[in-house]
């Protein structure tokens, strides 16, 4: 896209090869718009964020947006006609769309490192850096979820102001699970217990659950275990007293931690979109793509996930793989996820959501091509399984579904200390790491100021995207240094685990 959009521009053709343009505002029927040497008259009203045809198409024609196919015309489409679900369909069918015989030659994109900028973070004993110094109360099983919440609530009152916060993150699993499903729950909980944003962790167990507390503790690194307390409620006289005593010990340790200047190489950012609309791939997602590039170039680690929402755009990531091995891993992960859909008797294209469609997104290919822009142009250096933590710097691709809560939790378990969450429809959701909500359009930011931290709709009204990216970058550094996000102010904090197996 262009670096800025004129205020007077009413529609945007993103790529010269596109067959459609996007309305930047509500446009009436019979509106005449100029594109290059030609003029298009709209045959119907076009809502903001929706598409209209720039040339006549016949049924079966590939329809291009972002310079790539977003599906095929399901009927004849006239120039100036609205293009949406009634005349455009996905071309993603079954697993074939994810079969790769080879990996394209890697396109290595370089950026000028930013070695000057710093933020004030908490450096942990293992060298990782947190953006918060909190006490987290986790539960090994859903049976004691409420107990964990009560312990955290009372502890937050008792120790107000001594640390950045005391919060419980609970779930309903940990028992009646088998095999990989149970192992995934254990792996994610262990990763959360070892997170850089915590100065201490209390894990509350029951005692008879499948996810035995001792087994969970044995998976933790010794350096992390020094700041962990745990007990089974079946084995103590009073779980509330035991919880209070454990928090007293943890707060006494964490209260000694202090922020210090840290380099951009110490930042780990999660890249997430939820409730996308027709503007997400034009404003908010490319905007945080600039941030991802800047962090990666400085030696930091951006993490991309939501694997079903890269179907149809995976080639853009494969081409940027750091090695053939990484490229093959990207292809294999996409193929694995498509098999997951097929094994459950579901079409791989069962996306976008109703809200996406209302906002102007028609097919999964269109959604994916907009979504992968969150990853900018950085080289993909690692592919991570669900619940796994980052193992090197540079752009990571993480296995997780598109579900907002599940994928955001996975990003944090992988090591993200800040989430950049773009949205066109809006959501109040928040997660354990500070979650910056970035609206794709200014109407959302205006209507939901308690949800939105940054308005990317400015790109539609003339602000150069690089200027907007610099403002967002400054907000990220302030957030990493302690400035609170809307989700933190609103108390919107939760986790969700990916349930993949049978329930006993």
UniProtKB/TrEMBL annotation:
Family to which this protein belongs: Belongs to the UxaA family.
Matches recorded under CDD domains: SAF_AH_GD
Q: A single GO BP annotation from the record?
A: D-galacturonate catabolic process
Mind listing the UniProt keywords for this protein, alphabetically? Lyase
A Pfam family annotated for this chain is GD_AH_C
Protein name, entry field: Altronate dehydratase
**Leader peptide range in chain numbering:** none
* Superkingdom field: Bacteria
Source species of the chain? Pseudolysobacter antarcticus
Identify the residues that the record assigns to the SAF domain, covering every copy: 18-89
Q: Which GO terms describe its molecular function?
A: lyase activity
